[in-house]
Write a structure and sequence with these properties.
This protein is of the alpha/beta class. It has helices at about 1-5, 15-30, 95-100, 105-120, 165-175, 190-200, 255-265, 270-275, 280-295, 315-325, 325-335, 340-375, 390-395, 400-410, 425-440, 440-460, and strands at about 45, 60-65, 70-80, 85-95, 130-135, 140, 145-150, 185, 205-210, 215-220, 235-240, 385-390, 415-420. The protein has two domains: about 1-45 and about 200-420, Hexokinase, domain 1 (3-Layer(aba) Sandwich); about 60-185 and about 425-445, 2-Layer Sandwich (Nucleotidyltransferase, domain 5), CATH 3.30.420.40. The protein has 16 helices and 13 strands. Helix 4 (about 105-120) crosses helix 5 (about 165-175), helix 9 (about 280-295) packs antiparallel against helix 12 (about 340-375) and helix 12 packs across helix 14 (about 400-410). This is Phosphotransferase. Pfam families: Hexokinase_1, Hexokinase_2. InterPro entries: ATPase_NBD (IPR043129), Hexokinase (IPR001312), Hexokinase_BS (IPR019807), Hexokinase_C (IPR022673), Hexokinase_N (IPR022672).
Length: about 450
Amino acid sequence: LTVSFISPFQLSPETLQEVSARLRKDLLRGLGKHSHHKAPVKMLPTFVRATPDGTEKGDFLALDLGGTNFRVLHVRVEEEAQKVLKMDSQICAIPQEMMLGTGEQLFDHIATCLGDFLESHNLKGQTLPLGFTFSFPCEQLEIDKSILIRWTKGFNCSGVEGKDVVQLLKEAIHRRGDYHIGSVAMVNDTVGTMMSCGYKDQSCEIGMIIGTGTNACYMEEIKNVKRIEGEDGRMCINTEWGGFGDDGCLDDILTEFDVEVDKTSINPGVHIFEKMISGMYLGEIVRLVLVKMTKDKLLFKGQISEALGTRGLFETKFISEIEDGLENAKKILTELGLDWSLVDASVVRLVCDTISSRSAYLCAAALATLVNRIRNNRKLGHLKTTVGVDGTVYRKHPTFSSKLQKAVRLLAPQCDITFLVSEDGSGKGAAMVTAVAQRPAHQSRLLEEKTVYILTPYLQKH
């Protein structure tokens, strides 16, 4: 009977190959000039046109805003030692009322905290370039121009949606008038993850996050990014792969529990792939399975405790802890007010293992799509590449990373993939994006592209 609950979560290698093939089609839709508007996988250009080459150097600031706190950092890139050093950092709180106030208040607060940081670290006299990790849905129009599409995560500041957040930050700094910043680079957290690993390992061309949410970015050939002018070189694409399946293409592998998790979420019908994989939802999937099994008298003598019956109370971290040992499982089941037997504890471990394994295998299928795409783009028989990874599910779960790596090897046999855990992608990584954008070759490239863009109509006339 237990098997009937578990088997819908067990995906065969053939099913994973099929998932990978479906994502491959969705990547193309997202990259297309006319199809990207309706594509569930958005494939957003980041205007990051290169990965680190080891020549980057200097001092940089980084701002990281993605929740109720934001961080300010001073980062030094040392070419000789090939190191990215966090010199100093400071965390600033954002009060609840400010999250719902005006955009001007929010950016004035950020500019004040940045000013205080520069003052206390004697950096006010310098004009340092700044990397800005802003973890909200944005449409990026240039490396230093990013329009907020909508607020999420409890923010709802007026006068920001539809506006360029770089401009809002610069205006707030200008209103103060007591310090200056250099050029600004907008950074998505997956790109930061890739770049923070890219200084240590210059073959790092993919960034992946498996934490509260999931997403990935990779280096794509510019000629394939149809909404960007240009033929030569590469650009990092933020896939936003959490939205895979939003058009119903994964409905055949969704279980009744996935459907329930989606239905009761704050954004039903959106981010279907993410809801099968990420830390925000895994605990709830396990809870729903355990509740159903208990109702069917397969667990806990048919008695559902108040905690088990309450949405959100079975935390994703419990999965890691339960899989780590039977003693942990017993402790957690007791804390949840359940009358358990040894058989119950073993079955709960099996349920946790099944659901976390499915998450790892689905991630592997998606990652295989990206590495195979890079290999085919470059017409290589064999690709050697590195993936920079971050996120609590990947870092904290006892077997997630090994299962994911094993499955990717199976699904992308012609790719040799190294996995590097990122060090502070939204801080050091953001500084690295800025450092790469400062490189002379990168600067002249941008100038060239702008010149071509300006001259083309003139040349066509003459």
